[in-house]
Specification:
This protein is of the alpha/beta class. It is 52% helix and 15% strand. Strands 5-4-3-6 form a four-stranded parallel beta sheet. The protein is globular, with a radius of gyration of 18 Å.
Length: 178
């Protein structure tokens, strides 16, 4: 998944892809194995740094946002109602538009085969990624995206959610039409 000058990759999810990749392991040379080990160590350092930045950002931004949301509505009641709907109707693929901290993905994770969060703020994407990783929600991911220009194939999503998003948009009706 490209995001600015960065690219994010994750292990393939399908059994065929996993089997294919496992079959490549014996072909990796000792030199490449050292490179892979260094890459894995660097990835661990990047994740730790991102988690630290996310924790600081979460304290500064996300908690304030969630407190403000909680003042406007009974957040636990809304989340309970959302999850109850998901439990009644199995969801193959969830699209969370304006995912923010990834809270909706976290809530729906037990009820979806795959979840994708789309977010315009890179800082919030880092928060969401950290939340998903911390909760081992490997079937959910986030990517940079715009509510007005979703790069999603028509009919490929079982449920799309815009939770606490529309009031931030200049043209909310246009986003809903997507």
């Amino acid at each position: 998944q490209a995001e600015g000058t960065s690219a994010y990759y994750r292990h393939a999810r399908s059994p065929f892809a996993r089997s294919f990749l496992a079959g490549l392991d014996p072909l990796v040379s000792d030199d490449a194995a050292g490179t892979i080990a260094r890459d894995q160590a660097q990835l661990a350092a990047i994740r730790a740094e991102r988690a630290e930045l996310a924790a600081r950002s979460f304290e500064r931004i996300a908690l304030e946002e969630e407190v403000l949301r909680g003042r406007a509505v009974n957040q636990p009641a809304v989340e309970t109602a959302m999850v109850a709907l998901a439990a009644e109707h199995p969801i193959d693929r969830l699209l969370d538009i304006g995912t923010g901290t990834g809270r909706v993905l976290e809530l729906f994770a037990p009820h979806v085969r795959a979840g994708v969060g789309v977010e315009l703020s890179r800082e919030m994407l880092n928060l969401a990624r950290t939340r998903l990783e911390a909760n081992h929600l490997d079937h959910c991911s986030v990517r940079y995206g715009n509510a007005y220009h979703l790069d999603v194939e028509m009919g490929s999503v079982g449920l799309a959610v815009l939770h606490h998003v529309l009031h931030f948009l200049d043209e909310p009706a246009r986003a809903v039409e997507q």
